[in-house]
Design goal:
β10 and β11 form a beta hairpin. The strands form 2 sheets. A 7-stranded mixed beta sheet has the order 1-7-6-5-4-2-3, with helices on both faces. A 4-stranded antiparallel beta sheet has the order 8-9-11-10. The mean pLDDT is 92. It folds into 3 domains: 71 residues, Up-down Bundle (dopa decarboxylase, N-terminal domain), CATH 1.20.1340.10; 245 residues, 3-Layer(aba) Sandwich (Aspartate Aminotransferase, domain 2), CATH 3.40.640.10; 99 residues, Aspartate Aminotransferase, domain 1 (Alpha-Beta Complex). The chain is built from 14 helices and 11 strands. It is globular, with a radius of gyration of 24 Å. With 462 residues, the protein is α/β, with parallel strands linked by helices.
Length: 462
């Protein structure tokens, strides 16, 4: 395959993509297949000779779409969306064509400089104070790991990277039980250890109790342990819980501890001024992560980490061997020093295209619709006999269940086997509940209200 072939087949791929998106509502959201069904359709060994693109594309059409869970389906209400607006897809096509490796400034100046500008556009869009800078990661998991590694180094006077953790005081990280499992993974990967992630109790609103945070820090200090940092939740994955950001930051700062705020999903909603009270006080954080790929229409992967001061993270993660130096430019920004990977894709291009193609007002209108439709379908579900709303909507996320846990599990299986919508589960206060999250880029009110229709039909048919 050469570039002339690429020109031809790229146009064919664009036609396929247009038809795919136009017909998504006619497809089941989740692939109704058994494990191994796709693999069995592939040869056991790679081809020795080149195959015609016609055959490759035909196999793609025959095998792949029917084996996909369709994340761009307008009735995908599971997890959180991984949206891909048309403008973002176009930008990805261009970025893929250039295939830049933007590890340092000189390997593609536009990659670095557009990223810097896009970070500041997003800072302004979310209402964050001047002074925050930042970088783009692949996911919030990597951003949180970067923050935890930095907490570890600050707590060890930047000796852990060199000497290791052996012989040092036991480090402690504090977070609420509503934080994402990526926090657990970060303390494991950072060598701090799962047992040193202290889950702080929450109040009736499932927000971290500042007084409990204070008590835990003081107890650890008295026991000779070393507090290293606090991770706060701004829109939990399970039910959308928000910690009391300002009050918890005040406790952390009183003890000189850095704070990372995980707003991976809900952070996008802060482009709407009326939702910013939910994370009031966030300007006091040292690190904040949110994912434009979840709710702003920017194609996965694209996670933004804002930093009040990048110096500790660069000191933690930065390495500059001679082959990565830019002659005569010692102070230039090289974003690989802010992140875990050395290699970096041109992720900023899709931010630039998306923000310009829809504008903040266009994106705000989508988010406001999703929040309103979530409240509306929640009310409709509450009217179905046997359905109980277990947590009220926080932005566009809520949960419901039937009276019996086994019945709730069976209902979710039937919902997803039905194919018209896709939902997922969580455990809340020990019970199995069904999550509803409205956020797909192209969904309509009718798509969202389909949730109540499907649930009503399946409950009635039990």
């Amino acid at each position: 395959m050469n570039h002339d072939d690429l020109n031809l087949w790229s146009k064919r791929a664009a036609d396929w993509a247009q038809e795919y998106h136009a017909t998504l509502r006619d497809r089941p959201v989740r692939a109704p297949l058994s494990v191994g069904a796709i693999a069995r359709q592939l040869p056991m060994s790679p081809p020795e000779a080149a195959e015609p693109v016609e055959a490759i594309f035909a196999d793609f059409e025959a095998i792949v779409p029917g084996g996909m869970t369709h994340w761009q389906h307008p009735r995908f209400f599971a997890y959180f969306p991984a949206n891909a607006s048309p403008a973002s897809m176009l930008a990805e096509q261009l970025a893929n064509a250039m295939a830049a490796q933007g590890m340092i400034w000189q390997t593609s100046p536009a990659v670095t400089e557009i990223e810097q500008v896009m970070i500041d556009w997003l800072r302004q869009s979310l209402g964050l104070t001047e002074g925050f800078v930042g970088t783009i990661h692949d996911s919030a998991t990597t951003a949180t790991l970067s923050a935890v590694l930095t907490m570890r180094e600050q707590a060890s006077a930047f000796e852990s990277n060199i000497k290791g953790l052996s012989g040092q005081a036991q480090l402690r990280i504090y977070a609420s039980a509503q934080t994402h499992s990526s926090v657990d993974k970060a303390v494991r990967v950072a060598g701090i250890g799962q047992d040193n992630l202290v889950k702080i109790t929450t109040d009736a609103a499932f927000s971290m109790r500042p007084e409990a945070l204070e008590a835990s820090i003081c107890a650890d200090l008295a026991a000779g342990l070393r507090p290293a940092g606090v991770i706060l939740c701004a829109g939990g994955t399970s039910i959308g819980a928000f910690d009391k950001i300002a009050a918890c930051i005040a406790v952390a700062k009183a003890h000189g501890l850095p704070v990372h705020v995980d707003a991976a999903w809900a952070g996008s909603a802060m482009i709407c001024h009326e939702f910013r009270d939910l994370w009031a006080g966030v300007e006091g954080a040292d690190s904040i992560v949110f994912n434009p790929h979840k709710w702003l229409g920017v194609q996965f992967d694209c996670a933004i980490q804002f930093l009040r001061d990048p110096a500790p993270q660069v000191k933690t993660l930065g390495l500059r061997p001679s082959y990565l130096e830019t002659a005569g430019r010692e102070e230039i920004v090289n974003f690989n020093e802010w992140t875990v990977p050395l290699g970096r894709r041109f992720r900023a291009l899709k931010l630039w295209f998306t923000l310009r193609a829809y504008g903040l007002e266009g994106l705000r209108a989508r988010i406001r619709n999703h929040v309103a439709w979530s409240a509306e379908v929640c009310e409709a579900l509450s009217m179905i006999p046997g359905v109980k709303i277990t947590t009220q909507p926080i932005l566009s996320l809520f949960t419901f269940a039937l009276a019996d846990e086994a019945a709730s599990e069976a209902l979710l299986t039937r919902i997803n086997d039905d194919g018209r919508i896709y939902l997922t589960q969580t455990r809340h206060e020990g019970a199995f509940v069904i999550r509803v999250q409205v956020g797909q880029f192209d969904c309509t009110r009718e798509d969202v209200m389909m949730i109540a229709q499907v649930v009503a039909e399946l409950v009635a048919a039990r």
